[in-house]
Amino acid sequence: MRHWLKRLVWGVLLVTLAAVFMVWWLLRGSLPPLDGEHAMTGLAAPVVVTRDALGVVTIDAGSQADAMRALGLVHAQERYFEMDLMRRTAAGELAELFGPAAIEMDKRMRVHRLRARTEAHLDVAMGSSAAALQAYVDGINQGVADLQVRPWPYLLLRQTPAPWRAEDSVLTALAMYADLQDPTNQNELAMARIRAVVPPALYALLSHDGSEWDAPLFGGARGNAPLPDATALDLRRLDAARATGAATAGHPEPDVLGSNNFAVSGALTVDGRAILADDMHLGLRAPNLWFRVRLRYPDPHAPDGRVDVSGFSLPGLPAIVVGSNGHAAWGFTNSYIDTADFRSVPANAPGITTHEERIRVAGQAPVVLRVRETAWGPVLHEKPDGSGQALRWAAQLPGAVRLDFAEMARAGDLDQALQVADRSGIPAQNLVIADRSGRIAWRLIGARPDRAAGCPPNGNTISAPASCMQWALRSDGAPALIDPPTHRLWTANGRVLDGDALVTAGNAGYDLGARGRQIRDGLMAKERFTEADLLAIQLDDRALLLTRWWHLLREVVSTSDDPALQRLEIAARRWEGHAAVDSVSYRITRDFRGMLIDRVGEGLLAPAKEHLGEAYLEPRLGQFEGVLWPLVNERPAHLLPPPYSSWTVLLTETAKALEADLSRQGPLDARTWGERNTAAICHPVSRALPRVAGRWLCMPTDPLPGDRDMPRVQGPAFGASQRMVVSPGHEAEGVIHMPGGQSGHPLSPFWGAGHDAWVKGTPTPFLPGKTAYTLTLVPAE
Fold first, then answer.
1. Is 555 strand, coil or helix?
2. What's the pLDDT at 247?
3. 3-state per-residue secondary structure call for 263-288
4. DSSP letter at 322?
5. Model confidence at 11, in pLDDT bands (50, 70, 90)?
6. What digits encode the pLDDT tens for the residues 448-473?
7. Cis link prior to 298 (omega < 30° from 0)?
8. 646 φ/ψ angles, rounded to the nearest 5 degrees
9. What are the residues whose beta carbons fall under 8 Å from the beta carbon of 194, sequence distance 6 or more?
10. Full DSSP string of 634-685
């Protein structure tokens, strides 16, 4: 028996080792080649692909077509699965990979029929880049075909990667529309419904569009909301306001899908160089969304007859999205202008067509989605009687994507970069440019609605006259600020415009201005700048917005004899003034403000919820600070959210609830900001694996400094998807950061490479470092 038991143990061990070896061998088989010589179909001449220790790629080619072909191969071999997710997200085709769990997500996008629209208007999207795009597509497909084993996520999902087509690159760009803009346009519809059922004074509070924190490029701060008197609004007389919901610590404020970008002109530097800083805030994953690359090839239309551009590419697109080419540098923030409008549709409206969209689902039969479509757009909200609201969204229309934006790589100065911007079809963004001569400019770039005169986008557009509900897209003639007299520019997703220009652009949810104001004030505090100075502003985690909230919390707890409030007073006594990982007072103050946002917000929204019932949609109150702060300071009895008997009771009960919530987690003095703000940056498939295996696909669980209302935006899985500080012509002195690493393969030397510098804010060079790997692509026989 002992003999057979020993043989059984050895057998199990050998089978286990064989299984581990097989898994390892399969995973290794999907790693891309990094060195040597590799034949590639379609090349006109050899292309050299080098990588540094972080995996940053440099492509040296004899033509743009060869460079794009090589870029396609590199993108595919390092990131094909992630590219696949991008195109499927836009097209509503994720369930084909992930099964029933993705059906509802697919329905949310499939109603827009973006693949069908892209196929119908592909020529418009390709513009002058058709040849470059085709070379890129061919490179992608060869890159996948040349791997020994298909990319490893497909092995786990038991799927085979589908070929890449030209329209898939357009869908990749449309996926950014879905990320940066709301495909359901919920906030506009939510506010329109609220406006119809609440008193005007209450709607004015909820829709207040600014605060004292505003920092626009044009005009001044809106200021906080003026509070109505009891004759205009009295919550005590609105019975519906009695139904307030319980709040918990750590109110999850909505993410800001955008960025910081700012610049100083040559008048503020010792040698006349202009310097640009850019950090784009998006959801974080491993690998990172962006891919660092330098492209070099001859081009008769480029300065000195040669393109040499470095920066961040988006796998799936043949372009550098943000970067510098030695003559001009550019970066973006999301603009939050209004790019979508609803229109009411009668039950028997003429001209409605019905499309049956088949959503393929892994492991089961396809699901059919019935899409009713008008000339205005698809019907998103349909009532039982057949009436509803149709949505016109910029992403649906020809010109939403135009790959002419790739020509930024050859822009010779600021004026040429602005000319490229006129032809660019991207989600509407704040573009900031710096050029080699020391000039800087801001411009609204990308596809925006060309609404008729006298038809502003703000307010309730559902009932607007038909003459106001016909618009196409345009990208030229946009507002701009060129060579500003202050020699400084800044944007941070807040309101930029004022006056008629703001009326035309509209407001799709500008962010609270605190972050932009902190950047602006940092720029105004100095008269001379270097790249290090701009990086310091990017990494600024001072809690300026919350300082006054800490003082309010101290007012509530410092004189109380309640044991819970006394414990809170001791824990929050020391104010560091930063969103630092070891700060207890920052976390307590932030959660105190968050719970008040919940409680006061619930009180103001309760009448609308009562009247609307199932038709109620949750609005995004991005400027609520400008309402809440006057309320807690002036404390008018007629605006007190029921059921509280006084503002003092509301503040005290909120602090006690906060103490109870935090104490359940352990001692108060151990409840640091870093404990809550801990990195959770993982590969998309990690959630489908056991916890142990999932951790293998995640970046380290570092505590992170920073937060949403300061320049250093960092959350567990949201924050700066890249950082760069660069002066065109001085790229060697630039700085760059990227989380998550270059490669999508956990066995790659580039998995997570550079991530630690992003966490710590350690400067790393903008340009690729010393060559560590060299791959030569040669024309196939």
1. helix
2. 45
3. EECHHHCCCCCCEEEEEEEEECCCCC
4. E
5. low
6. 999 887 777 754 455 566 677 689 99
7. no
8. -160, 165
9. 203, 206, 605, 608, 612, 619
10. H--GGGPPTT-SSHHHHHHHHHHHHHHHHHTTS-GGG--HHHHSB---B-GG
Residue range 696-721: average pLDDT?
96
Strands (E), 233-387: 258-264, 275-283, 291-298, 306-313, 320-324, 328-334, 340-345, 353-361, 364-373, 379-382
Please name which of 753, 770, 762 lies closest in space to residue 78, comparing C-alpha atoms: 753
Residue 596 Cα to chain centre, angstroms: 27
How many CA atoms, within 13 angstroms, populate the side-chain half-sphere of residue 741? 26
Is the CB of residue 320 less than 8 Å from the CB of residue 295? yes
Flag whether pLDDT at 18 surpasses 70.
Answer: no
Percent pLDDT > 90 in the chain is: 86
- Beta strands across the sheet bearing 47-51: 36-40, 773-779, 47-51, 57-60, 291-298, 306-313, 320-324, 328-334, 429-435, 440-445, 480-482
Q: What is the pLDDT of residue 249?
A: 44
Asked if residue 330 lies in contact with residue 424, where contact means CB atoms within 8 angstroms, the answer is no
Residue 242 has pLDDT above 70, yes or no: no
Q: Read off the tokens for 100.
A: 């029933």
Q: Tokens representing 423? A: 């032809």
Does residue 598 surpass a pLDDT of 60? yes
pLDDT of residue 243: 45
Q: What burial class does residue 713 get, using C-beta atoms within 10 Å of its C-beta: 0-12 exposed, 13-18 middle, 19+ buried? A: buried
**Residues near 715 by Cβ (< 8 Å), separated by ≥ 6?**
255, 677, 704, 707, 708
**Backbone dihedral angles phi then psi of residue 58, each to the nearest 5 degrees:** -120, 130
Helical ranges in 525-583 per DSSP H: 531-538, 544-557, 563-571
Gap between the Cα atoms of 519 and 541, Å rounded: 11
Residues 6+ apart with CB under 8 A from 744: 78, 79, 80, 81, 82, 151, 287, 683, 751
Q: Which of 28, 36, 57, 50 is nearest to 741 (CA)?
A: 57
Q: How far is CA 56 from the centre of its chain?
A: 23
pLDDT score for 16 = 55
The CA-atom distances, in angstroms, between 771 and each of 49, 53, 58, 240, 774 are: 10, 7, 9, 67, 7
For residues 393 and 471, is the Cβ–Cβ distance under 8 A? no
Instruction: Note the pLDDT of residue 459.
Output: 43
Measured CA distances, 5 to 8, 9, 14, 563 (Å): 5, 6, 14, 64
Query: What sign has the CA pseudo-torsion 267, 270, 275, 277?
Result: negative
Closest listed residue to residue 739, CA positions, set 768, 707, 704: 704
Query: Can you read off the two tokens belonging to residue 516?
Result: 């932009």
Which residue type sits at 256? Answer: V
Beta strands in 25-95 (DSSP E): 36-40, 47-51, 57-60
Computed over every residue of the chain, the mean pLDDT equals 93
Element (H, E) at 152: helix 152-157
Which is more confident, 448 or 236?
Answer: 448
How confident is the model at residue 245, as a pLDDT? 45
Q: Tell me the pairing of strands 291-298 and 57-60.
A: parallel
Both tokens of residue 644? 């509280």
- H or E, element range at 431: strand 429-435
Average pLDDT over residues 383-407: 94
β-strand partners of 435: 328
pTM of the predicted protein model? 0.94
Helix axes 563-571, 584-612, angle to 10 degrees: 120
- Are 93 and 363 in contact by the 8 Å Cβ rule? The answer is no
Give me the mean pLDDT over the 229-234 stretch. 96
Split at pLDDT 50, 70, 90, the class of 286 is very high
Quick check: 86 and 171 in contact, CB under 8 A? Answer: yes
Q: How confident is the model at residue 589 (pLDDT cuts 50, 70, 90)?
A: very high
Q: Which of 546, 574, 624, 62 is nearest to 296 (CA)?
A: 62
142: amino acid identity, one letter = Q
